[in-house]
Amino acid sequence: MARGKPAGLRLETAERGQSEFQQSSLDDLLSLDHRARQVWDYVERLDLGVLYSRVRTTVQSTGRPAIDPAILMSLWLYGTLEGVRSARLLDRLCKSDAPYRWLCGGVSVNYHTLSDFRSEAGPVLDDLLSRSMVGLIASGLVDVQSVAVDGLRVRASAGSGSFRSGERLAELYGAAKEAVDQLRAEVEDDPGSAERRTKARRQAVAEDRLRRLDEAVQAHAEAEDRREEADREQRRKKPRDDKPARASTSDPQARVMKMGDGGYRPAYNVQITTAAEGAHIIGVSVADQGTDYGLLKPAVAEVRRRYGIKPRRTLADGGYYSKADIEALHAEGIELFCPLPKKGKGDPAAPRRGDKAGTIAWRRRMASEQGQAIYKRRFATERPHADMRNRGLQRLLVRGAEKVKAVVLWHAHAFNFLQFKRLAWV
Fold this sequence. Notes:
Order of helices and strands: HHHHHHHEEHHEEEEHEHEHHHH
Low-confidence stretches: none
Strand content: 5-15%
Distance between the termini: 53 Å
CATH topology of the largest domain: Nucleotidyltransferase, domain 5
CATH class of the largest domain: Alpha Beta
Shape: globular
CATH architecture of the largest domain: 2-Layer Sandwich
Mean pLDDT: 85
Number of helices: 15
Largest sheet: 6 strands, mixed
Radius of gyration: 27 Å
Number of domains: 3
Helix content: 40-55%
């Protein structure tokens, strides 16, 4: 009891030592309109046949039964909506918070199972993204005739000090390979030694480091090839005066990119394609280049691959400006709405030397009032980016492009889930 209580007061105070008998179920913990119930209803309507086909426990087999994939799917979808980024945090919430306990339904989960499911469900989520939108597109609720493409740079898990030059990577790789060969020889020479298990663990760690260094060497070679290709496209006569290409030893697929605040940090360039009307996410990909230059054509190809539909209009910001992409889209009959470059003298809408038919048509289109009005619709499609940021997509906790794409797909499904709710309400 707090100090300062005068005598003679009648108060109801906390009594936590009294034994009580409470008869209730998990279903009594949540209101009928709780978001966790809506997430579960949504997951129950999904086709999770691919996940169920991976389960090996049957009524004829022995051992502990597997966890229902629908439970894991609903936990991560609800957790993403609530801004949960860590599998360990989600594990703790499943033991303490009512919505997560309700979703578990008495099934025990652990952080290792949750972490593995989040990363391994990437291909399934990618397929579900396509199949969940096909019906809406066919019914006319989602229009993909006009699509918007934009990039979102997300801070990678790699440290800034993990990037090494090509020469240093070659030295580290040689030393790691020598260490692995030595440990492997020690284990084979004395298989009955009591320290065999310890040496085997050391060998596994060394082999993992060797694998990451090998990936870093390959990533450095790809970066060098990309630089040479860019030099040929831009017809550089003098060598670059910037720093040599480097690769990370902890996350080889990450690249140092310029972020929204002007700083340079290891990151991934997440490409998100949305429907211009309604801002539904219809495509997700992960790139390892710091700019959006040259990524417009692959984004349009992704829409065609997923839905078998060619959009009539594509909206993008100035970072996607590429004459090659403009001509490629023009050849397919796709109108591009991208702002005119402000660099250089003269009227940016006037044709330049070397402009082809697609570039000339694009300049005229963007110089008109109608073209500017259509381009302004692109800003509404940036809402998915803000939603992902607000739900915790600030810095990644996983490494590798495949796992990064899986995390982004969880956020894409969470955003589309809210969009589907709005469509159902309408």
